[in-house]
Design goal:
Strand content: under 5%
Number of domains: 1
Largest sheet: none
């Protein structure tokens, strides 16, 4: 019964995304593709700066950052659940035997599957833009699965807020948060080339761990330290944001 309910809600979320394909798919990919095809060429000479390390070309270096940008730009589950709150559909699910929790989980996992597809597209775009890929299997694994897992974890912040308030505008208010997180990491510049204070932040930024792990895959190796730290970061953020979601669900049930 639970598996059937989950599958029904999952495919419902997928069908909703297909109806607004331009907003859900095209728009979030525009900026990352621009960075891989244009931005990387404008700053291609940066790899010749003394001390630059971590990539054979700049497009290869920033490919993980572009992928992470896409997954943090692309979550739509939060908006969908706020629409359900406003339309009264969520209240109808509350009186159903399974309750709304399976629908919430299905929405977030459907979102993550979409993010995995986005990451796959950007891996291909990075390769077409000149990024050397030494091990395709490794890149297609780490370069898609890690971002999708991070997208699920990070998306829980907006999902919990929109679920609690029933207002889609909340996601727009939270949207700018990812910019400092992304740009204060090693996604676009190695920490060694940053000011000391910024380099210290970048070294402990979860997006640095994710970017470094994916970048290592592009160069045909598994860097265990950043990969381990990336997985720990994903697990910790998932636990935290899921706690927010559960708290929001309980708050609605009490109301």
């Amino acid at each position: 019964m639970q598996i059937r309910a989950f599958a029904t809600m999952f495919w419902r979320a997928v069908r909703e995304a297909r109806r607004i394909v331009v907003v859900v798919i095209a728009v979030p990919l525009v900026v990352p593709i621009f960075m891989l095809t244009v931005f990387s060429r404008v700053f291609t000479a940066i790899v010749e700066v003394p001390g630059f390390q971590g990539g054979e070309s700049y497009v290869q270096y920033i490919a993980p950052g572009a992928i992470m940008m896409a997954v943090m730009l692309s979550g739509t589950a939060a908006v969908s659940v706020s629409v359900e709150r406003q339309s009264g559909f969520y209240d109808r699910m509350r009186i159903a035997p399974m309750g709304p929790r399976w629908s919430n989980l299905a929405r977030r996992i459907a979102d993550s599957v979409k993010l995995l597809a986005f990451a796959f597209v950007l891996v291909i775009v990075s390769w077409l833009s000149g990024a050397p890929i030494r091990d395709w299997a490794l890149v297609l694994t780490l370069g898609t699965v890690l971002p999708a897992l991070w997208g699920f974890a990070y998306g829980g912040i907006a999902f919990a807020a929109c679920l609690r308030t029933g207002r889609a505008e909340v996601e727009n208010a939270l949207f700018p948060l990812f910019f400092p997180l992304l740009f204060m990491s090693s996604a676009f510049v190695p920490p060694i080339l940053m000011p000391d204070w910024l380099a210290q932040i970048a070294r402990y930024n979860p997006l640095t761990f994710l970017s470094d792990a994916i970048r290592g895959a592009y160069m045909g190796r598994v860097d265990l330290e950043p990969l381990t730290l990336a997985l720990i970061s994903v697990l910790l953020l998932t636990a935290l944001t899921q706690a927010f979601v559960v708290s929001a669900e309980r708050s609605i049930l009490r109301s």
